[in-house]
Amino acid sequence: MNIDIGRWKHVFKLDPDRDISDSALERVCMSGTDAVMVGGTTGVTFDNTVDLLSRIRRFEVPCVLEISDHDAIVPGFDMYLIPVVLNAGNPDFVVGQHHRAVKEYGPMMQWDQIAAEGYVILNSGSSAARVTEARTELQADDVVAYARIAEKLFRFPVFYVEYSGMFGDMDLVKRAAAQLERTRLFYGGGIDGPDKARLASEAAHTIIVGNAVYENLDRALETVRATQE
Ligand SMILES: CC(C)=CCC/C(C)=C/CC/C(C)=C/CC/C(C)=C/CC/C(C)=C/CC/C(C)=C/CC/C(C)=C/COP(=O)(O)OP(=O)(O)O
Ligand SMILES: O=P(O)(O)OC[C@@H](O)CO
Ligand SMILES: [Mg+2]
């Protein structure tokens, strides 16, 4: 399947470590979202990732893996997104884990199916911040500088402003997006219904909805239409 992340406005992120019923999964996959991203910070394994992929494959929606664990790199996704945590305190999450993975998988990697995401993690209470030891005390101009690094220095296709678990500062997101010419700004965190989806869509190129799927599916599904208005 040909994946064009440049056209994505809305993405659902599903966590292999969380339960979702067949009927809920069907509603997510048939919602009109641009893609389903599989990923999570903790408890992601090869087995639970294969299991979720095979269930999503009953539908036509594009399905991409956001790799967060070396042992959970599963073949068969349409594309692979690789987080590079620009504000990680632990350099393992900037390039260390990536080095190990490319050393192992390098000969069989299809690079046109792989895209790097320059991440900035801003919710200090999130698992992602804890695991990566992220430096979350950032001002808007720090994030703007990271956006420039992501696009101009590293030429990453995606700059991901991650507030996982809380709704972030949309002025900061707008300022970061305004720096970008080709790189897409993904925003994720605390989008629990259509109002926040609209606000986030005005600031970011692409919005990611995660926890709401598990907390209030009806409202989560309403975020799809909100981005298309
Ligand atoms: C044969 C075959 C399958 C070939 C494939 C080849 C291929 C694609 C190889 C990959 C090569 C490569 C470079 C891999 C990278 C390896 C790796 C493990 C990198 C580290 C990734 C990383 C920085 C992880 C840190 C955590 C993080 C940023 C995760 C991103 C997702 C995220 C923030 C989810 C939010 O999680 P959630 O659970 O919602 O969090 P909360 O609990 O806080 O809500
Ligand atoms: O779970 P939420 O808070 O919606 O965040 C979405 C996503 O950015 C998590 O990586
Ligand atoms: Mg989550």
From TrEMBL:
Query: InterPro entries, per this entry?
Result: GGGP/HepGP_synthase_I (IPR039074), GGGP/HepGP_synthase_sf (IPR038597), GGGP_HepGP_synthase (IPR008205)
Under the subunit heading, UniProt states: Homodimer.
EC annotation?
Answer: 2.5.1.n9
Record function comment: Prenyltransferase that catalyzes in vivo the transfer of the heptaprenyl moiety of heptaprenyl pyrophosphate (HepPP; 35 carbon atoms) to the C3 hydroxyl of sn-glycerol-1-phosphate (G1P), producing heptaprenylglyceryl phosphate (HepGP). This reaction is an ether-bond-formation step in the biosynthesis of archaea-type G1P-based membrane lipids found in Bacillales.
> What pathway does the annotation place this protein in?
Membrane lipid metabolism; glycerophospholipid metabolism
Alphabetized, the UniProt keywords read: Lipid biosynthesis, Lipid metabolism, Magnesium, Metal-binding, Phospholipid biosynthesis, Phospholipid metabolism, Transferase
Binding-site residues, Mg(2+): 15, 41
GO BP terms? glycerophospholipid biosynthetic process
- Kindly state which reaction or reactions the protein catalyses: sn-glycerol 1-phosphate + all-trans-heptaprenyl diphosphate = 3-heptaprenyl-sn-glycero-1-phosphate + diphosphate
Task: Report the cofactors.
Answer: Mg(2+)
Similarity annotation: Belongs to the GGGP/HepGP synthase family. Group I subfamily.
Residues reported to bind sn-glycerol 1-phosphate? 13, 160-165, 190, 210-211
Q: What is this protein called?
A: Heptaprenylglyceryl phosphate synthase
| Top EC category | transferase
Provenance organism:
Paenibacillus oceani
